[in-house]
Design a protein that fits this description.
With 196 residues, this protein is an all-alpha fold. It is 72% helix and 0% strand. The chain has helices at residues 3-16, 22-40, 43-55, 61-81, 111-154, 156-167, 173-190.
Length: 196
């Protein structure tokens, strides 16, 4: 089921049941995007989740906080599952026969060497995509961490709400610890240092 169909079904159900508010529709839509990110592991899906959290005016503070913590936990889980690759992708892959790096594979006459070169190019593209995705999700995680700190500083009850939500953010206790540590570190970075 695609996102448009899911959103349409949620809207139809909401219209059929008058007690469902627009906030609940927006929250359900955002939760759908979170689940899609978990299934597809697409940084674009994760960014869609963040956009919904930031731009949905009908979300209550509690719904916004819940979504914020869920997306932050999902980004942390992704980064725990997929650490940054140790290798760095090459700008131009060199053929195994010591031809010029970045040469067109079709220019290599030996079919065995050409096949290995094409395999090396594909592996380099996969490595570059892993770096790009890791960087994008790390940036989203850091943005969400800062957003959590800002959200908790708006009202005293927001801090308590976030604290409660963090305890149930993930079934993995390590993820919960990591999220809490990220938020604590961000809070510490925001505290101005006084002159001694």
């Amino acid at each position: 089921m695609n996102t448009k169909t899911s959103k349409m079904i949620i809207t139809i159900i909401a219209l059929a049941i008058p007690s469902i508010s627009y906030s609940q529709i927006d929250k359900a839509s955002a939760m759908q995007a979170i689940n899609e990110f978990k299934a597809e592991e697409s940084s674009e899906k994760l960014q869609q989740c963040v956009n919904r959290i930031e731009r949905e005016p009908s979300l209550s503070d509690s719904s916004r906080a819940e979504l914020l913590v869920q997306v932050l936990a999902a980004s942390v889980q992704y980064l725990e599952k997929h650490p940054k690759p140790a290798e760095t992708p090459q700008i131009n892959v060199a053929p195994p026969d010591d031809s010029i790096a970045g040469a067109d594979p079709a220019s290599i006459k030996d079919p065995v060497v050409r096949a290995q070169y094409e395999k090396d190019i594909a592996a380099n593209k996969t490595l570059a995509e892993a770096h790009r995705k890791h960087g994008a999700i790390t940036a989203i995680r850091d943005k969400l961490t800062a957003y959590c700190v800002s959200f908790s500083n708006i009202k005293p009850e927001n801090k308590k709400l976030l604290s409660q939500l963090l305890k149930t953010a993930s079934s993995n206790p390590e993820t919960v610890k990591t999220v809490a540590a990220l938020i604590e570190k961000e809070e510490a970075n925001r505290v101005p240092v006084t002159d001694r």
